Amino acid sequence: MNHHPTIKPSTNARALAQTHFRTLRLGTPFQPRIDVLARTQNWYNWAGYRAPHSLWDEELEYFAIRSQAALFDISPMTKYRIKGPDAEALLDRVTLRDVSKLKPGRVHYTAWCNDEGFVLDDGTLFRLSPTLFRLCSQERHLPWLLDSAIGFDVLVEEETEAVAGLALQGPTSFAVLRDAGFAGVERLKIFDLAEFAHEGGTVTISRTGFTGDLGYELFVAAEKALSLWDRLMAAGELRGIRAIGYTALNRARLEAGLIVANADFTTAEHAIRADRPRMPDEIGLGFMIDPEKGHFNGRRAILEARAKRKVRHVLVGLEIEGNIPAEHAIVYHKKSREVGLVSAAMWSPMAKRNIAIASLARPYGDTVVEDLWVEIYAMRELQYQKLMKRAKVVARPFIKLDRRTANPPADF
Length: 412
Known about the structure:
By secondary structure, this protein is α+β, with helices and mostly antiparallel strands. The protein contains nine helices and 19 strands.
């Protein structure tokens, strides 16, 4: 009878096996700095990462964006590196906008659809060189991108973990970058990008952001992340730099009239019900569609829906009477017919208005814009009170800040 010796796992392996459940969420390269600042301990799951809703005070974090400089960790954002002789051709084929018009050193906001013309996601496309792009998005799309790349001379790889990202937003953001020693950053106009030296490597800085304010986004190799954070924090000390969480950023993006995938619209891959996906024209992204360029995903369906007037929904900005946010309120016509839903709402400190983004069934919000109401339930001393408040369709963005596009950027 053969006796096999008992194989004892090493102490380290056993400890690892027993503690795996403690790592519920990944940390980003900036996590050591963020954890130290996290007084509220208010976390959420962003694409598998532990990300802060707030760090110290969500109200003051919002005002840091609008009056100082706010630093927000965007590392969990999905990032793809698309490189090769056919990179432009591939991206032109799958996204809505004409990629041949995107010059190296520029960024544009774009979206992409399935063959039925429904939006899979929106995101930003960075052209780093004639043959190198970075595509940033909310959702993961690697299998779809790889399938789409068949027949193209191109390399597609996900670089979400390898590349750390920061958004530096607010009126003093330019001054922080200049004081941090990024010489020439004043030459960046809105949607420009450039490479700058950092710690023996480079950091890509673009004049972009999700706040409607003066702001920048910085991308750096993960191993250089902490030194970049420290460089910015040291330079920004006298300019009021503050780290912030998502709640503050979400308020700023709403004032800027910007939309979030799977918050303001359901992406085609996430939709379970057949009537939930949206075409670009139904969520305010119709301006991206270039019918003059060659074939792209969803082209036939999108143009057919336009020609046959089958665009069934419209995304609108609303101004609502009173000051109680109409978050997830139902929108009615003449207080009786249900015509849509509010997806994001707030009392705007900058606009001094009660604002919202809503998806409505056409013709409501499109040609029929009178007599719209929202149904708000306000908690008053442990009892909900139903409030019917007037709503009117207004233009987005709800606030427009000259400093966002000023050249050169102002020194606040």
